[in-house]
């Protein structure tokens, strides 16, 4: 176990981790956030074009995330 840990630490230190990290687009983040607050069905693209309504939604979502 110790040798595996040393190998992983060395790979991270040298900047050569194995594998690929998953790529997320900003659209994926928006969809995930809307699903978390129960608005996954929403036409968020149309809503984003109305700045006032979008701002209200974003402020509501941000207030839910504050601990």
What is this structure's SSE topology?
Blueprint: H1 2-14, H2 26-36, H3 44-48, H4 51-65
Keywords:
67 residues, mainly alpha, 66% helix
Structure report:
By secondary structure, the protein is mainly α. The chain has a domain at 23-67. The protein has helices at 2-14, 26-36, 44-48, 51-65. The longest helix has 15 residues, at 51-65.
**CA-based shape:** elongated
The main β sheet shows up as: none
Percentage of β-strand residues: under 5%
- The number of distinct β-strands equals 0
- N→C terminal distance: 37 Å
- Report the mean per-residue pLDDT as an integer: 77
pLDDT < 50 stretches: none
Radius of gyration, in angstroms, nearest whole number: 19 Å
Computed structural class: mainly alpha
Quick overview:
The protein has helices at 2-14, 26-36, 44-48, 51-65. By secondary structure, it is mostly helical.
């Amino acid at each position: 176990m110790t040798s595996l840990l040393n190998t992983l630490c060395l790979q991270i230190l040298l900047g050569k981790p194995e594998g690929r990290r998953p790529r997320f687009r900003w659209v994926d983040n928006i969809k995930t956030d809307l699903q978390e607050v129960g608005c996954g069905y929403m036409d968020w693209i149309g809503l984003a074009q109305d700045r006032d309504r979008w701002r209200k939604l974003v402020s509501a979502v941000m207030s839910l995330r504050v601990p």
